[in-house]
């Protein structure tokens, strides 16, 4: 596969920005021009460049608004939000950098300006979590032209390891809105605006988070907004990468009627272990190597490997721990294997779509997607699906980066079947009944 950067990590993140173009969240020409200023393994050039392009797109949006061009303004604000999001990504090597919060706040504000210009309703609200903290939430309603008879199927969309609520638009609402689905997306603890503003941290038992989201939806929001006609008997959960793991954790809730786990993992620790020399990780596991030595070696190696440095620093920040050894312990809890040796997935009763990516830089399908699918053997064949993309154009890059159109096509084809969404022959309306 062609690479824009020597670093696979930087190349992946560049494709993440460029691949948003089909949904107006990047402009190919702007991404090409950005290459002039971006330098491999240089977080400052990354921040400066994408922040500048975010400012430029924001100004174009304001210019379009002044001329009553809603479409151009929406597109420009979507680009600005995505560029601002990307700008702070590599700054996570120093989680105290104030530009992280500033960039995500700018991303959130410009995204909200963009979605206010959609040809549909988007409702912004907060969901109570814990200790007075509320989770930023958006409910995207489908276009009126895509709605049919009956109530509207709903997708609950969970975030992952390093995405934001604004970026989630590309993975859910962008494809759902014209297909007659509503989407509820949120930043959970340790994610997006919640992590940067409220100092929340990720937790492995994500079903605890999604249960609070569903409780609020069922007990508070839906009863007060019955006019929206949300179908609470047709709720799907979706998530990509670590969000795919979180979606699987959430899918044991009987209120969830379908689950899409896009390129998630089975055991995060086993993924990390597979990337380390066996003598190194085994020495730490059996106690031959102390935490101090493990930390010293890991930190030394990270000085010469930007990706490793970013991964440890970002993990320490979002898990709320201080050392690489602490990160590894948290990773041991991020698994679908129960402490007693049983399988968490045995509790899943809803249909599940599992995807993997053959050219992933993170979660090899053999020990992740395929293992997850194998542990769904109790589900009938018609109620489960495995898709492992091979090659960039077939979804072979992690989280279906640069293949979002195909991801939506495959995902909604399957969700339509599982949730009983029947599309009519009139493709102009794209309605269901």
Automatic annotation (TrEMBL):
GO terms for molecular function: hydrolase activity. Pfam families: FrsA-like. Coiled coil: none annotated. Keywords: Hydrolase. InterPro entries: AB_hydrolase_fold (IPR029058), FrsA-like (IPR010520), FrsA_esterase (IPR050261). SUPFAM superfamilies: alpha/beta-Hydrolases. It comes from the Eukaryota. PANTHER family: ALPHA_BETA HYDROLASE PSOB, DIENELACTONE HYDROLASE DOMAIN-CONTAINING PROTEIN-RELATED. This is Uncharacterized protein. It comes from Alectoria fallacina.
